[in-house]
Amino acid sequence: MHLQNPLILDHVRLTKFSAVGDGMHIELASPSSADPLLTFREDEQLGLQAVIHLADQDMVFPLAELKRALVMAELEVHKESFFDQQEPND
Question: 26: Cβ–Cβ under 8 A, 6 or more apart, which residues?
Fold first, then answer.
């Protein structure tokens, strides 16, 4: 999916905070917004988690899955000109 007019951030704001009854969290947010885009937390049973804050509901998944996606992205994601520079296979 390619968005036509995305908000491009040169950097993000990281904030560490303690949530009562829920331990230490890290939030990732736009520098111009108080609302987090993503929170990292640890659950007693489910371990380290990434929480994506959507408009109508939070989406929670294991931090290991985000790490796996980042590794794959670094290996497989390329801009269009990358493919134009590839040598054809005989």
Answer: 14, 15, 16, 39, 40
Longest dimension (CA), the chain: 62
Residue 13 tokens, joined: 């704001």
Predicted TM-score of the model (pTM): 0.80
Q: Position of tokens 């590839």?
A: 86
Identity of the residue numbered 81: S
The DSSP output letter for 32 is: T
pLDDT of res. 87: 65
Distance CA 36, CA 83 (A): 35
Stated as kind and residue range, the H or E segment containing 60 is: strand 58-62
| Sequence-ordered list of residues with C-beta below 8 angstroms from that of 14, at least 6 positions apart, any chain | 26, 27, 28
